[in-house]
Structure formats: C-alpha cells, structure tokens
Amino acid sequence: MGGKLRMYNVEFGDAFLLYGEGENLLVDLGSIESGFCFDPVRDSVRTESAGSQFSLMLTHFHRDHWSGLHNQPAGHPLPPIRHLYLPDIFGMRFYTSLDVIVRSLLGDFLEAVLLQKRPRFTLADLMREVLPGLHGKQIVFLSRGDEFSMGGRRCEVLWPRLNQADAVGTRTRGLLSFLERTEAKLKTAEAGGGLRDTMEAMANILLRDFAASIDRPVSTAIRAEQRSYEEVYARAQRMAETLAADVARDEGEFRDKVRHYAEQLSRDWNRVSLVFQELEAENDTGSTDGGVLMTGDAPKAVMRRLADGTYGAPGLRERYAVIKAPHHGTRSHFCAVLPHCRYFCVSSGTGNRGYQKITEEYEYVYGCRGKGSEMCCTNPRCEFLDRKRFCPQFDIQPVRDFYDVCW
C-alpha cells in the first residue's frame, strides 16, 4: 500500500496533508508568522479533499501548529471536519503540581510581562475562539497506545504518555522558588489568590468551558471552579501590568529569571506533542512500505527513548517511507538516532533562519551523505546556499508553496 503526503510551506510552522482512500488527514495548520496568509493552503486542502472525507490533527497547542484555523474567510475555509484529533488535554491536568497546562499559561503571562503587553494565552485563544462549534463526537483525544484509522491507513500513537512525570516535568523546585519571589513582588491583596492560583483557576476554567461545549464529563476539581474566564483574565492582566512595571525598573537577576522562565515554559507543550506512526501494511509486492512517522514537536529525549526502546512497545520501527523532522528541523530538537527512511521532511520555511536551521546536519545524517534518504525541505534557501553557494537537493530554484512526497 503506497501513499502520498503533501508538505505545505507555511514559513516556520507545520501543515502536512496525508492522503488516504476516501479520507485525508491534515496534520497541523499554523505558522509563527502572524501575517502569513493561509488562504492558498486551505484552498489546496479543500481541492485535494474534494470527494473525500476530511479530518484534522493538532499535535499540540503552540500557535505555529493551529493559527491557520483562525478567522477562516468564507471563500477560503477548510472542508467540513469529520474528526479532530487532539492530545488528551484533560489527562494532562494534575492538581497537586504545576502541570504542563498551568506552566504554558504562566509562560504566556511572563512573555506579556517582558513585552509589556496584555497577556495573550494561546490555549485560551484555541479553546474559546477556534474550537467551539464542534460537537463531542467529532473530537478524539489521543495518548500513547491509542490507534486511529484514516482512509484505510491504521495509525498508532507513540506519544504523549499521560503520567505526572511527563505532564509536570523536572523544573518544579526552581520554578516554585521563582513564583514565591514573584508573589512577594506583586504583594497582591485582592480576593482570589496570587499568581499561581490565577493560572490554576484559568486552566480549570478553560477545561471546564471546553468540556461543556463538547458535552464531556470532567473531574470534580474542574467543576468546582466557579469563576468566569473574564474575571480571571482581568486579574491576570492587572498582575501583568504590576509586574511589568517592576521588571522595567529591575536590571538584575529577577529580570533575567522572568526572561528565562518565559522562554522555558513557553516550550512545555512540546513535551506532550503527539507522535504517531502508520502501522505496517503490505504493498502490491507483498513487502511493507514502512508508512509515515509524524513527530510533531516532540523533544529529542523523547525520540531517543522511543528509538532505543526505553518506553517499551509501541516503539519506532527500523524503517519508514517518510519521517518528519521534529520541531521543523531546529537545533534544539535535532535527533540523529531516527530510523532509516526514503524521504526525510524538514518543514523549515524561510522564517526558520532565526531558529538555527540545521538542514545541513540532517543531510549528513539522513540524506545522500548519510542513510540515503531523500531530503525534502520547504525552504531551499537554507544554510547550504548561505555558506556554500549550493544545495545538494535544490540547487537554485524558487520556493514552492508545497512539496509532494509519494511512495
């Protein structure tokens, strides 16, 4: 059973269309570029899915993986969605620790403090502005070990695990100390608690309201939250203004700490990014084609442990038809232990220049100089051209809107 994948050039972001028999699956649709126009991409997806059912997967909740869902013009919408696949966000909520949901909200808050802007919470934007209107049966929550079927292609989920260690992470002690200092600087006397309580309440409110919109039962801890999002957001905004004024006057260690945690916490969604692989299927010759391995933005530590069997079954196979480079192909997620594949896809885009794009290193590990994979990059104007005046795959040619991979 062969296959086809279309990789769209959305600058620094992801958008992959997997073709099936009677159903296509779009894996992510977003870009870090706030002014990127998704109209041609959505038009292409709609055209390619004509006569077929259409499903959508968001591997995680960073804006560069879902911003293309925002404000779809009447003339350029996605096709009607059959299934929306999401990481099981309800299973990531742990109430005795700073879990990934609270941490991501806190990261957005600290970023607003540094920029001296109104807080803009990515998860709130998605759950309150983009997802409403879908009913519960359309939304499928996934975690490690789950399987789903798309157009005759069976897939299994390798990540995330829904346990406290993965949802909470390893930076709790230092973060708690930082939060204590922050609370002391805020010295808030308002009813409703301090910064941590505000972020915890916002996490519960977002899950509560989302669950209500899709008719999903939730825990008593979520149901117990009585405040409205508007009430908690107003409180967060006042805190951000107070802290921003203090940070603006501070030239020492605390300002550096705010910057450090704003950067670190904003990446926490990567730890729970969906990773899935197509289950092996025989092709016309009776052998297996390997299918696809879609890595989302999973950290390299997760991919290494999937590769060496640390997590047990299910794990990575020895060979695939297509592998997507984790996190668009950036240095922070570079992984040299992924299996062999026929095509290695780097969804870099021209916006990746500021993110230490490492197409050259991937080329030496997986490309014609390494494991013999064919490199597929959405940005031919990479560091090969910057430094060596040539690219082994593209030479000199215009950037295209999309790249098709067939096997």
Q: What are the segments in which pLDDT stays under 50 over at least 5 consecutive residues?
A: none
- Binned strand content: 15-25%
Structural class: alpha/beta
Largest sheet: 7 strands, mixed
Tally of extended strands? 14
Shape: globular
Average of pLDDT: 88
Q: Tell me the helix content.
A: 25-40%
Strand order of the largest sheet: 6-5-4-3-2-1-14
Question: How many helical stretches?
Answer: 12
For the termini, the CA-CA separation is 9 Å
For this entry, give a set of tags.
407 residues, alpha/beta, 7-stranded mixed beta sheet, 14 strands, 18% strand, globular
Structure in words:
With 407 residues, this protein is of the alpha/beta class. Helix content is 34%, strand content 18%. It is built from 12 helices and 14 strands. The chain has helices spanning 39-48, 100-115, 122-130, 164-168, 172-186, 195-214, 220-223, 229-249, 253-266, 300-308, 359-366, 383-388, and strands at residues 4-8, 13-19, 23-31, 53-57, 84-87, 139-142, 147-150, 153-159, 275-278, 292-294, 319-324, 340-346, 374-377, 402-406. The protein has a 7-stranded mixed beta sheet with strand order 6-5-4-3-2-1-14, covered by helices on one side. It has a 7-stranded mixed beta sheet with strand order 7-8-9-10-11-12-13, with helices on one face. Helix 10 (300-308) links the parallel strand 10 and strand 11. Helix 2 (100-115) packs across helix 9. The longest helix is centred in the middle third of the chain and has 21 residues, at 229-249. The chain starts with a strand and ends with a strand. The mean pLDDT is 88.
